Amino acid sequence: MARTRNNKMTTIKNPEKYVLPLNFYRRDTISAARALLGKILIKKVNGKWAGGYIVETEAYLGSDDPACHAAGGKITDRNRVMFGPPGLSYVYFIYGMYYCVNVVAFNEENERAGAVLIRALEPVFDIVGMKKRRKTEALEELTNGPGKLCQALNITREDNARKLDEGNLLIIDLPGERRPVIESACRIGIRRGCELPLRFFCKDNPFISKHKKG
DNA sequence: GTACCGATGTTCT
DNA sequence: GAACATCGGTACC
């Protein structure tokens, strides 16, 4: 079975009840990147919860990772949240028109500054709204890329540095979900730090991002 | 299917 | 200036 989804819910009433505690993210970044697969990212947009299952992530390891925005350990206005406590969102603007959303992970002594990039979702909640915001009717094109899923969920710079266990942007874990089979490969779209397999995704899931090489 | 290419604004050198 | 954790389009095989 390729898909992560294991129930027939299309709306969700009290997601706060199922949020992952911020302690969940207090682990090394690779472990967090793997553990987030099969969890659900949602945002409340126009009164409705939109989102779906996380099916692809990438680990950015912090100060020692040349591809990480925290490389070198220098704190800037953009990367500041990565040096704070785990469980907060890190949203940045890229290529002049897109946003990408990360989750800040393990952060020993505020030095390592790791984060997990959410690269793709399996769309489940508020499909109608996501189609409208993405300007397409194709289900498989709604959230199969980091820029696309932010557009579908209306994630912008206003969602930066938010705690993911409260508010309008949440990561939840519904009871009774099966554990996905995880595969790994090299990260996408970066020039430095391509050696290690730090991209993780659900095996055979049809909503993985498109890319040239893996 | 693969291969470029332009859009567009912020960040960094 | 150049690079950028992207995407949608066009051209061609």
CATH fold annotation: 3-methyladenine DNA Glycosylase, Chain A
In the CATH hierarchy, what is the architecture at level 2? Answer: Roll
Order of helices and strands: HEEEEEHHEEE
User: CATH H-level name... which superfamily?
Assistant: Methylpurine-DNA glycosylase (MPG)
Task: Kindly state the percentage of residues in helix.
Answer: 10-25%
Give the strand tally. Answer: 8
Main pleated sheet: 8 strands, antiparallel
Q: Any idea what the shape is?
A: globular
β-sheet strand percentage: 25-35%
Low-confidence stretches: none
Distance between the first and last residues' Cα = 22 Å
Give the overall pLDDT as a whole number. 93
Number of domains: 1
Task: Summarize the structure in words.
The chain is globular. The chain has one domain (29-202): 3-methyladenine DNA Glycosylase, Chain A, CATH 3.10.300. 10% of the residues lie in helices and 26% in strands. It has 214 residues and is α+β, with helices and mostly antiparallel strands. Strands 1, 2, 3, 4, 5, 6, 7 and 8 form an eight-stranded antiparallel beta sheet that branches. The protein starts with 28 loop residues before the first helix and ends in a 12-residue tail after the last strand. The structure holds a DNA duplex (13 and 13 nucleotides).
Strand and helix map with partners:
Blueprint: H1 29-35, E1 40-45, E2 48-60, E3 89-94, E4 98-104, E5 115-125, H2 127-134, H3 146-152, E6 169-172, E7 182-185, E8 199-202
Antiparallel strand pairs: 1-2, 1-6, 2-5, 2-8, 3-4, 4-5, 7-8
The structure holds a DNA duplex (13 and 13 nucleotides).
